[in-house]
Each structure stands twice: as structure tokens, then as C-alpha cells.
Design goal:
- The complex is a heterodimer of chains A (104) and B (169).
- By secondary structure, chain A is an alpha+beta fold.
- Chain A has one domain: Arc Repressor Mutant, subunit A, CATH 1.10.10.10.
- Chain B has 169 residues and is mainly α.
- In chain B, 65% of the residues lie in helices and 2% in strands.
- At the A-B interface, β1, α1, α2, β2 and α3 of A face β1, α1, α3 and β2 of B.
């Protein structure tokens, strides 16, 4: 089991939830992520850009047969570094949460 | 435990459980929200019925291919037997694009279902060859339909297994 590490970049509420969803899958379509979180395109793009800048998330464009307006699917995934950072952050949160439970 | 940005914490105590401005109760809420998101994601993804039926059609087609062979000493495998196999993987790929999810893993029940499907299809193909050898070519319709139903059902089982795994992370 790895070390716990509190990551302030991941901890921002939307980014934590984005990483939490991406950690469950290999890749997730931008639209599915947007609809699951009930976020606007621009709000999600902003959070994804932040995560991409630190190397936690990777995106890949693909053609879509369901879309006739030249839009493309955007597949999002956690990078190896992002997955490790997210899991370390979750361990940190679990330590914080359990520290309270231990003192009740 | 360490903290992004250079802060280090050797241990937590009652007075020190506010790392990064996060209290224990906030940490609990954050962890719970991740679990809720898993449920929301599963509700968001629609069941790809068309793809499941397409996989079933590939299973039925694979067994029906036995009609293109001549069982016995001069047996030669069907020259088009690879088409439903390729079709199976193409439909799997399209299903992922359709649902917007590439799974990391589908879970043990899904793997068992897929293994069972392989065994069942080989079995139905062999039975079909036997029927053809007994000059009961019409009966291959029955084994082909059975292959369609079994493939659709087992693919659905594998899908539900993948959804359960997705929900629980």
C-alpha cells in the first residue's frame, strides 16, 4: 500500500470528483463525465485543463458515428501519475477521516 | 503523510486533523461524494441493447457457419468463419464508443460468462456438425437461434457485472 499524500490540486471539489470517476474506468467520454457531474462544457473543460497541465489527465479525440456536426468524441483518462496521485490523496483523506473517528 | 506544496505532517492528532484546510468531517463528505458519483455514472450509462443483440447475431452466425462445411473425413472448416469473430470485436468496440466508457476490468462474473460463452458456442457448433452429418441441416436453425439467445444473454450478464464493478469502483 502506497503512502498517503494530500494533493491540493486534486482536492478542489470538482477535480476530486472528476478523478474519482476517471479512476473507475480506463477511459471516459467527456460528455458522459459532464452529464454525470451536471457541469457545463466550459466548467468541465477548465477543470480538465488544470489536471492536464499537471499531467494527471490525458485526452484523446476520436471520430463519432453518432454525431453529424463534425464534433468528435473526447476520451479522458487518468495518467499513471494521476492515478497514483489520486490514490495517495484518497489515503490521505481516509487518514484525516479516521483520525476524527478515533477520537470520538 | 505528506502534503502537496512542501508541507509535511509526521502524524495526525486531534488538533492536527485539518490538513490543507480539510477537517475530518469534510474528508468524510468528500469520500462519500465519490461513492455517490459511482451510482450517478451507472445511472447515466444506458444499456446498449442493440450492441448486445449484435453480439448475439455474431454468435448465431458463427454456429450457422457449420452449414458451409461438409462433416466427415473430408471436413474443411468454413472459409467465412472468421467474419462473425471479427464482427464480435467490432461490435464490442462500437459499444464502448456508444456508451462512452472504456472499462478497466469487467469483473470475475463477466470473465466467467465470456469463457462459458466460448465453450457453449464451440459445443453448439459441434452439435450442428453432428446434425449435418445426420442430414438434419434444417435443425441447425435451432442451434443457431440457441447461440443467438445464449450470446445475447451472457453478454448482458457480462455487462451487468461490469456495471456493478463500475458502481463499487
Amino acid at each position: 500500500m502506497g503512502e498517503a499524500h494530500f494533493d491540493e490540486i486534486i482536492h478542489a471539489p470538482w477535480r476530486l470528483r472528476i478523478c474519482g470517476l476517471l479512476n473507475r474506468v480506463d477511459q471516459l467520454d467527456f460528455a458522459v463525465l459532464r452529464d454525470t457531474l451536471s457541469l457545463s462544457d466550459s466548467a468541465l473543460s477548465k477543470q480538465i485543463k488544470t489536471l492536464e497541465e499537471v499531467g494527471y489527465v490525458a485526452s484523446r479525440k476520436a471520430a463519432s458515428t453518432n454525431r453529424d456536426d463534425a464534433r468528435r468524441l473526447t476520451w479522458l483518462s487518468l495518467t499513471k501519475q494521476g492515478r497514483a496521485a489520486f490514490e495517495a490523496h484518497i489515503r490521505a483523506l481516509q487518514e484525516i477521516a479516521s483520525s476524527d473517528a478515533g477520537h470520538l | 503523510m505528506s502534503c502537496h506544496g512542501g508541507k509535511s505532517y509526521d502524524r495526525l492528532s486531534t488538533m492536527e486533523n485539518n490538513i490543507g484546510g480539510v477537517s475530518a468531517s469534510e474528508a468524510t463528505v468528500a469520500l462519500n461524494s465519490l461513492s455517490t458519483d459511482g451510482d450517478r455514472l451507472v445511472r447515466q450509462v444506458r444499456i446498449p441493447w442493440a450492441s448486445l443483440a449484435g453480439l448475439g447475431a455474431c454468435g448465431g452466425w458463427y454456429v450457422a457457419n457449420s452449414l458451409a462445411t461438409t462433416p466427415g473425413a473430408s471436413y474443411l472448416p468454413s472459409g467465412t468463419g472468421w467474419i462473425p469473430v471479427v464482427g464480435f470485436f467490432v461490435i464490442l468496440y462500437l459499444a464502448q464508443r456508444d456508451t462512452g466508457i472504456h472499462f478497466r476490468a469487467m469483473g470475475v462474473p463477466a470473465n466467467i460468462a465470456l469463457l462459458g460463452l466460448l465453450v457453449l458456442l464451440w459445443g453448439l457448433y459441434s452439435v450442428s456438425l453432428g446434425l449435418i452429418a445426420f442430414n438434419l441441416r434444417w435443425a441447425v436453425v435451432i442451434t443457431s437461434v440457441a447461440a443467438f439467445v445464449a450470446t445475447t444473454g451472457l453478454a448482458g450478464l457480462a455487462w451487468r457485472s461490469a456495471m456493478r464493478r463500475l458502481r463499487h469502483g
